[in-house]
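dumping this here so i dont lose it
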């Protein structure tokens, strides 16, 4: 089984969206675009959503999913999506059930530019720096 199939199975079995039933189809489309590392489609689908701060049952945010799922050679896409989501007001300090934040996942995948961006936002949030 290749990596994307394994990740897809994990999402299918464990990462059910904790949102209203009628929203699940839209969010599954977003999940699938993230699994395919399709930044353009992901952004287009996110633009249709009023709330981009949705979490799975494992408390995983869309920002975390992007940071842990996109391959290392797509950091520019991850960075661009992170900037977009931050401008939409997502909280970089959200913690999933594994006690990790989007910063952890970005760092784990070697996204140094994205990690610096997320860390700077986390510091701004924590210390109210403007």
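and the seq i came up w/
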């Amino acid at each position: 089984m290749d990596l994307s199939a394994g990740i897809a199975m994990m999402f299918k079995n464990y990462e059910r969206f904790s949102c209203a039933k009628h929203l699940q189809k839209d969010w599954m489309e977003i999940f699938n675009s993230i699994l395919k590392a399709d930044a353009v489609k992901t952004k287009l689908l996110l633009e249709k959503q009023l709330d981009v701060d949705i979490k799975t049952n494992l408390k995983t945010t869309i920002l975390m999913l992007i940071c842990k799922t996109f391959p290392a050679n797509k950091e520019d896409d991850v960075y661009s999506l992170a900037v977009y989501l931050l401008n939409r007001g997502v909280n970089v300090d959200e913690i999933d059930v594994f006690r990790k934040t989007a910063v952890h996942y970005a760092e784990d995948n070697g996204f140094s530019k994205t990690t610096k961006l997320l860390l700077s936002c986390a510091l701004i949030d924590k210390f109210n720096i403007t």
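Residues 12-22 have pLDDT under 50 and may be disordered.
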